[in-house]
Specification:
5-stranded mixed β-sheet, Nucleotidyltransferase, domain 5, 12 helices, 46% helix, single chain, alpha/beta, 2 domains
Length: 347
């Protein structure tokens, strides 16, 4: 073993990870896929709140302004130089095409300038891999629910980087439904955290909202009917001149979402015989959902894994974790890597 190889073995595989798929500009330095040396996130929530959702053009411009600063801060906090990195990992899809292009272009430029290998990472794969950061003992195979603003997937994690999607949303994702209902009852954006907070003051049994089932696919989700039911309830109250109890509506809606996510997930666990179950994505930071899964997994006698809330929402540490296993499998991307806004898991 020569001196360079010995130094690389001692420092491990260092990944500079970049995430810019939506409205967070994020960078992190990860060692060997599981150790977080730094995790920097610049959030644009305040910029987009006034519009009630993310404006892609505004998000793209802010990514351009912040990405160099965020990457430099991540390296400094980790006590590393860019030239110390073994690989540069970057989200290339799915997401908003403008924001994705900022991160991909920046990562390609760094790779070109330094010769450091480039690895493109699937955003949903990153969410799933967030579980590896805090649960060092977790290894595939296991089942995972990915619930976020744009995705509701029930996934079989067969191996590192090998996935089978057995359930997905037919319309609105869970996080999208949270945002739309929050806006309808006057809570504003972002909807998920605000509904989670006010639900603690409400009665989840006050209003019965429907739990949709997709007849031909028992693991698929549908939340558009639930969203419509909430809107119909609100319109009915307005027509009758009745006062709307925000907390009760929020709690009842949240209970309906949680019930469906847990029921479908546990049905899959029983049919496939899994002994390990994980959650991931922004909605996975919802306190009621986490509590419900703790109880359900305990009842089923299986291990439950959930990342801390900071690793549920968009971040670069999860991209570094996923990127490490792609790198170990020999995945390398060229400078023709492009943003793929509708990238499917497994592609």
């Amino acid at each position: 073993m020569n001196m360079l190889e010995k130094m690389n073995e001692e420092k491990g595989v260092l990944i500079l990870a970049i995430e810019s798929s939506c409205d967070e500009t994020a960078a992190a330095v990860i060692r060997d896929g599981r150790e977080v040396l730094s995790n920097i996130i610049y959030s644009q929530i305040e910029l987009h709140t006034v519009y009630g959702g993310v404006v892609p053009e505004i998000a793209s411009r802010k990514h351009i302004e912040k990405i160099n600063q965020v990457v430099q801060t991540a390296l400094e906090q980790a006590g590393q130089k860019l030239t110390d990195m073994s690989v540069i990992a970057v989200t290339y899809g799915p997401g908003l095409v403008g924001p994705l292009l900022i991160g991909v272009s920046f990562a390609k430029a760094l790779s070109f300038a330094t010769g450091i290998p480039l690895v493109g990472v699937h955003h949903i794969e990153g969410h799933i891999s967030a579980n590896y950061i805090e649960h060092k003992e977790l290894e595939p195979p296991f089942a995972c629910l990915v619930a976020s603003g744009g995705h509701s997937h029930l996934v079989v994690v067969k191996d590192y980087g090998e996935y089978e999607v057995i359930g997905r949303t037919r319309d609105d994702a869970a996080g999208e439904a949270f945002d739309k209902v929050a806006r309808a009852i006057g809570l504003g954006y972002p909807g998920g955290p605000k509904i989670d907070k006010i639900s603690k003051e409400g009665n989840p049994d006050a209003i019965h909202f429907p739990r949709a089932k997709v007849v031909e696919s028992m693991y698929d989700f549908s939340f558009s009917g639930l969203k419509s039911a909430v809107l119909n309830y609100l319109n009915g109250c307005q027509m009758k001149g009745e006062k709307v109890n925000q907390a009760d509506v929020a709690a009842s809606f949240q209970r309906a979402v949680v019930d469906v996510l847990v029921e479908h997930s546990m049905a899959a666990v029983r049919e496939y015989g899994f002994t390990k179950f994980a959650i991931a994505g922004g909605v996975a930071s919802n306190s009621s959902l986490r509590e419900a899964f703790v109880e359900a997994c305990k009842k089923e006698g299986i291990e439950f894994y959930d990342p801390s809330p900071v690793f549920c929402t968009d971040n670069a540490a999860m991209i570094g974790a996923a990127g490490y296993y792609e790198y170990q499998k020999g995945v390398r991307h060229g400078y023709d890597l492009n943003a793929v806004p509708n990238l499917k898991l497994g592609e």
